[in-house]
Structure formats: structure tokens, C-alpha cells
Amino acid sequence: MLTIGKGAEMGRTAELASLGNGKAVDTGTGEILDLRERPGMFVYVPARPKWAEGWFMAIQEAFVALAKDKSLSGRPMRVLTYMMGRLDWDNYITLSQVEIAGELDLHRQDVNAAVKLLVERGIIQEGPKNGRSHSYRLNSTYGWKGKTINLKERRMVEALPGRISTEGPPEH
Description:
By secondary structure, this protein is an alpha+beta fold. It folds into 2 domains: 2-44, no CATH class; 57-158, Winged helix-like DNA-binding domain superfamily/Winged helix DNA-binding domain (Arc Repressor Mutant, subunit A), CATH 1.10.10. Helix content is 30%, strand content 23%. It has a 3-stranded antiparallel beta sheet, with no helix packed on it. Strands 3-4-5 form a 3-stranded antiparallel beta sheet, with no helix packed on it. Strands 8-10-9 form a 3-stranded antiparallel beta sheet, covered by helices on one side. The N and C termini lie far apart (48 Å). Mean pLDDT is 78; it is low at 164-172.
């Protein structure tokens, strides 16, 4: 795969097949390109494996802020780490506090206090109810699991008045 183009088509990804003599064919469009006359450069982009599960994009500066936040040591950090490990598409976290307590060998009250702190700090926010339990969402300032177009939309929603901050946790 190569990134090609200029003007409005800049950055278009295409698969090229060499025809020799400095010419190539765009296998997607059939266009024959004279690579000697085309200004700019080609960038090789290797194929990336498609991950079905077990990944999310993380924001490094946010992780530094989390590490420096003294209120997030111990149980709250364990609960946050577990919740991020179970992050679902578009940053939803659909776990009951009882389930988290069981998995981490904690009392439900300790998980409740940790979740309350995480919500107060703006790291997660309560989402819609899922049966008797709340769902949660990770603030996109810390990471994202989903399509990047949805991330842009989510950040606009989070920036609305009355929504969680996109600036990360406040300083202590």
C-alpha cells in the first residue's frame, strides 16, 4: 500500500503494481501513473493486523497525569485499570460493581468508593443503566476504543457545558 495524491486527493491510499520503466498502475482505479513525472513522494504503509479485541488507543500524557494523582493509588487505581482492561467499543464499560469486586477480591463498598472517585475526577462518567447496574464511559482524554470519527464526535460532546472535562484530572 502506498499513500499518494495531491490537492484534494492528498493522502489517498492505493495499491500500486509496477509496470516497469518508472510506471505503475493503481490497482483500485486502473490509473497508470508515471512515477518519474509525479511530484511528491510515495510512502510505503505496511499492512497492519486487524485486532478484533483486546486493544485501545491510550493517551500518554493522561497516563502520566494518572500516575501523579495521589488520590488514585491503591484500590481506585486497581479498579480503573480493571475497567480499562474491560473497555468496550466507544469507551463503554458495562460491568457491575459486584463483578469488579469479585474479580479483584475487594468489598463492593470499596469498589463503590473507587468508582465514585473516578466519576468525581472526570476519568469515567456514568452512562445509561444496564439492568440494575450503571454502565460507564472512559473519558476520551485517557484513551479510546472505536473508530476515530466517533472519537472526534465524542470529544465534541464531552466539551459541552455540564459534560466531563476533556482537560484531564484537575491538579491537586
